């Protein structure tokens, strides 16, 4: 039975491993819903992406900056946003009021001289618009900087192969011959 299953499992593994090799180059789109800033996204050969974005010289008052991007694969993301100022409540001080990444609120230090907020394991939807929304208050010449990273989520075929492998090993262990020892 096992000798019959091994070639079939090998063929399935070969088909699944070669199916991802013929994919086209990734298409990345970004949109910023205000003027003066961009989100730069760089793909890597291992399927990960990194991004940097931010804004300086933000005029006094409340602001809302929306960064939208579309990636070609289902990923999980992480982002962090930082502010700094020379003096609390000075013209270059900026307060983050709220930051969301695909609806997930970033946690960390809000208010104060230096702020740092972050989120991890945020689902990124392939081919759909993903957003980071930054709301804040600038006192005249505020700025913030941000970074994000995106990593692949295992595809369903990979999960199926892994679960099938566990089932195969479990079945083989269950069927192995055991020797019985009888004592006189």
Account of the 3D structure:
With 184 residues, this protein is α+β, with helices and mostly antiparallel strands. Helices cover 21% and strands 44% of the residues. The protein contains two helices and eleven strands. A six-stranded antiparallel sheet has the order 2-3-11-5-9-8, with no helix packed on it. A five-stranded antiparallel sheet has the order 1-4-10-6-7, with no helix packed on it. Strand 2 and strand 3 form a beta hairpin. The longest helix has 20 residues.
Helicity, in percent?
10-25%
C-alpha-based Rg, rounded: 25 Å
> What is the count of helical runs?
2
How far is it from the N-terminal to the C-terminal residue, by CA?
A: 36 Å
Strand order of the largest sheet: 2-3-11-5-9-8
Globally, the shape reads elongated
The structural class is alpha+beta
Strand content: 35-45%
Low-confidence region ranges = 5-9, 14-23
N-to-C series of helices and strands:
HEEEEEEEEEEEH
Q: Biggest sheet: strands, sense, closure?
A: 6 strands, antiparallel
User: How many individual β-strands?
Assistant: 11
The mean pLDDT is 80
